[in-house]
What we know:
This is Outer membrane protein beta-barrel domain-containing protein. It comes from Billgrantia gudaonensis. Keywords: Signal. The chain has one helix spanning about 1-25; strands spanning about 45-50, 55-65, 70-80, 85-105, 110-125, 130-145, 155-170, 175-185, 195-200. The protein is mainly β. A hairpin with a 7-residue loop joins strand 3 and strand 4 (about 85-105). It is elongated.
Amino acid sequence: MKTGFSAATLAVALALLSPLAAADEASPSLSLTPVVEDPVYTSEDMARLAQLDNGIIVQGADLDTPDGYTSGFRLTAGYSPYRLPQFDLGAELTYRTSDEVPLSMAGESLLMNTTSVGGSLVAGVRLGHLGLYAKTGFAEWNGDPLEPGESARLATAGTSRVNGFGARLDFPSVSGQLEFEEIDAPSMQHLNQLTASLHIPF
């Protein structure tokens, strides 16, 4: 009697558990922190440092110019509004230092060390595979000529506006980005950049 009752109970339990197990296999796994696409204004070489529960993505990358004079880093924090997922909003912090940059100022050539710290607000929009973005902000900078004497009067420091815009094209097999950034200061002309990149994942 007990054996028959135990067997019947086990059969009923297995019958009840089987649909639950099948449902678990069919349903996708859920995560407390949703996976969010990188903002349109970030480049492929930027590492994702953190993704906060509120959807903000923090990314960073080292900076250097092709001429080898400048190095530094860039840190961005951005998110897509919940009701407007095709838009990206964010902020950018940039630090750059340059050593012995050849410049021409006030009719004379000189070498100058420069340092700049800037912050910008960034906004982008996704149009299918194409993304467009623009940024604006300010940079605190200073430049120190290396030559003594009369060129010392050109030692400068100040705050200038930073403007930039760019476009990003994303496909599964290839992505490209084009960006222009300008600091409105004669001493910082070497930091004005037009960059283009092409990434082919494999």
